[in-house]
Amino acid sequence: MYFLIALVLWSTDFIHHFNSSYVAFLVALLIYMPHIGVLEWKATQNKLPWEMFMYFGGVITMSTVLMKSGAFKLIIVKALNAMGLTALNPHLLMIFLIGLTIFSHCIWSTTTAMAGVMIPIYISLAQAMGLDVVNFVLPLSIMLGYALFLPFNTMGNIIMFGTGFFTVADLLKSGIVVGAMIWICWIITSYVYWPLIGLGL
User: Fold this and answer.
1) Concatenated DSSP letters for 87-112?
2) How far apart are CA 41 and CA 127, in angstroms?
3) Is-above-0.90 flag for pTM?
4) Domain segments of the chain: what residues?
5) Dist CA 116 CA 79 (whole Å)
6) Triad 66, 67, 72: Cα angle to 5°
């Protein structure tokens, strides 16, 4: 029932204009209310992973500040210019950016935040180099989905981490290996398959 209340309030925010965080707080309050709630504080205070909520909340807040201040964009653009990557052959640049996009996911708290910063950078880069924007940005946008490395990278990671079957180090080590395999597969794809569907640079 409480989940349905949250869904209704979240889907009707254009009417009441409540922030999604307020809705979550309200529903959580109802869940713990005496006589109408379904949980008791004493039963959950030592069983729920409260440290993960604090951890995730802190990372989200820090990431939001860095994104709104433009710090992420400044760092990425400066790094690309400092390494002289804009002078590379477009296809080699694409291969490098595929790896950068996959592995830089470890510093982002959400894929949405990452897309909001990275995609405009890639669009500007393509325009500055006189490349086809769609052919350049579309493949890189696909790479934004590989949130493999740390629990806070995506909510799915948080949920799975909360089960306690693996540690942060386990996730990071496996993420690096899988990320490298994904990068290699996309490099091969860029040479073999993309030209067949018109994505070659």
Assistant:
1) GS-HHHHHHHHHHHHHHGGGG-S-HH
2) 56
3) no
4) 1-48, 69-197
5) 18
6) 75
